[in-house]
Amino acid sequence: MGITPLKLWRFSIATLIGIIPTSFFLAHVGGELMATNFKEMLSGMMTASLFFLLPIVIAMVIFYRHGQFKNR
Questions:
Q1: What region does 67 belong to: left with phi over 0, alpha with psi -120 to 50, or beta?
Q2: Domain edges within the chain
Q3: Residue 72 CB-half CA count within 13 A
Q4: CA torsion sign, 53 to 57 to 60 to 62?
Q5: pLDDT one-digit tens code per residue, 25-54
C-alpha cells in the first residue's frame, strides 16, 4: 500500500487503458509524418481532432444550456 488506497493491479489496468489508445494514435501520426502523402496525414489528423474535440464541444453546449456558465 502506498500513499493512496489504490491497488497496484487497478492502477496498472487504468494506466494501460489510458495509454494504449494514445500510443496507437501517436504511432499513426508518426507513420503519416514519415509518409510523403500530405493529404492522408491531414485527413487523419482532422478526424482525430474531431473525435477529441467533439465531446468537449457537446459538454460545453450542454453546460451552457443548463446555465452552468453563468456568473454567480
A1: left
A2: 8-65
A3: 2
A4: negative
A5: 888 877 777 766 777 777 877 888 888 888
CA angle 64, 69, 71 (to 5 degrees): 145
Task: Check residue 67 and report its DSSP letter.
Answer: T
Locate all alpha helices (DSSP H) within 1-72, ordered by sequence: 8-34, 38-65
Separation in Å, CA 61 to CA 4, 6, 51: 35, 34, 16
Give the Å distances, CA to CA, from 49 to 25, 30, 42, 43. Answer: 11, 15, 10, 10
Angstrom distances, CA of residue 11 to CA of 19, 24, 32: 12, 20, 32
The rounded distance, in Å, linking the Cα atoms of 40 and 12 is 34
Q: Return the pLDDT at 57.
A: 87
